[in-house]
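Why do we bother with holo predictions? Because pocket geometry can differ from the apo form. Keep that in mind while you read this record for pyridoxal-5'-phosphate.
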Amino acid sequence: MGIYQSINSALIHGGISMDERTGAVNIPIYQTSTFKQDGLGMMRGYEYSRTGNPTREALEALIAELEGGKAGFAFASGLAAITAVLSLLHQGDRVLISSNVYGGTFRLLNQVFDHFGISFTVSDTGDPARFEQDITADVKAVMIESPANPLMTITDIRQISEISHRHGLLVIVDNTFMTPYLQRPLPLGADVVVHSATKYLGGHSDVVAGLAVVNSDELAKQLAFIQNASGGVLGPFDSFLLIRGIKTLSVRLDRHTENAEKAAEFLKNHAAVKRIYYPGLKTHPGYETHRSQARNGGAMISFELHRQFDIRVFFESLKLITLAESLGGVESLVCHPATMTHAAIPKEIRDKVGITDGLIRLSVGIEDIDDILSDLSQAIEKSEVH
Ligand SMILES: *Cc1c(COP(=O)(O)O)cnc(C)c1O
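The structure, written out:
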């Protein structure tokens, strides 16, 4: 980095941070589908907005810099980004996925890529020895989430990357839960990072978007081709919203995390809570590994209430915290993974990996922590069955 040392400054000044022509301190929204050519084959750097758009390009340069990669790509959703990245694979290839990978990623592989002869195996990426045993001759890639949603399972990104590269696999990390502010998978050894930018990067629950970053010129060439050929690109206005969201990522995440640490302490010590999953707790499995690769535990907490608490009543009793899909926005959100985010995963698999019907997932927002805690407290109290 040149004029700045820290990601705090890169969030604001990274990529293409100013409009060279006018000096506008924000990249304009280039709301255009096409660009004038001065003569046959005489382009001014852009020809058609699926192929390239200046607002999207500024975002792509920004995320590439933040993740420490060679090139970034912006898509219409996280799943569009994941679809494009998985399109690097060929018929007959197999991909290994972490056991509690995002439900939509599972569905995409299980019900779409499956049609094209690309198969997958659910692997315990938290256990490197067992993971290595799952690498059969047809395995060409591994898709990791760490912490993996919703049980916050930790994978050692360095170790899995090292093993995977020995077998020639492409290492893809979904970094949605951490963002480059808390964890940077490429310097740890991964080849590709994907994001649902809908979550923390956007940060305000007002845009659906996806990003991918690659660590080599060859992958950049291939993914640029796929992005243009398959066309799931992010529009100029949404690109602008993401750039705007990313500027405040570090201040938002500092508050998110501060609140989450207090919420985790509160839930851990609450008599109604049977189990808690939060990577910021020393008792969390993989805590040391997580600390070695991430700044802190982030702001996602899952927990289970004891049987004598009715989770239906719990959800209905919340007043400040909103029951909704998604996460990572400034407002606290809560969800029921078994029927919401992870409903696409068959019940046998859900039960096997621990995504039980009693599991609650909390995305801790940046409201006043006392308001968050009193809302949790009153909803738990109301949900007790007498
Ligand atoms: C939400 C999410 C996705 C999917 O992203 P969309 O923007 O909803 O398409 C992928 N991975 C993780 C970890 C997510 O939380």
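The radius of gyration is 21 Å.
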